[in-house]
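Case study 2.
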Amino acid sequence: MRELLTFTGMVLKASPVGEYDRRLVILTRERGKITAFARGAKRPGSPLMAASQPFVFANFYLYEGKDAYRLARAEAKNYFTDIARDMETACYGFYFLEFADYYSRENLDGSELLLLLYQSMRALLKPSLPNSLVQLVFELRAMAANGEYTAKPPRPAGDSAVYAWEYIIAAPLESLYTFVLKKDVERELKLCVDENKKRFIDREFQSLKILKALGGYA
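Prediction:
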């Protein structure tokens, strides 16, 4: 009998397979990005239905197959359901999932990116933090975690924007979302983060296009 494995992670994608199943892409702490099939997850009353949705942070119990895993059960720690209640906030959340999917890899330690993703979802639910600032912090720290950043901002910036850049790169993940910026400093930081993205990221994100269409910071 195959061993039941336990991974801690967050669902990045959930797509239908056939009439009743779902294919999940999960960012896990232990093995980075994995693909798992949740059989019967779309059936009414299925115990896998709630846990096989984007944003769900859980302990996932899986059987390993040749090319993918099979989800046996899950113990959800946070569904982040409040994110979906506001269209703009949901777009930010889906953008973070898409960004994490871009950077995560199979069979690599995913602990830093997973914790960043979790803390960023929590930050989206804090009224005191502008979602636009959460986006900048998430983008820069995700790029830094992958080694794709410059120690100083890639364009001229004032002292406050430079300090924010350096703090985001170096601060403990649990302390990332403990500050706000004046609007002019945030705009300056955004120009720097956008320049860094141009240097290191070679794709467009669909969720970011939708966010921009809705009038989000993007």
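The first strand starts at residue 4 and ends at 17.
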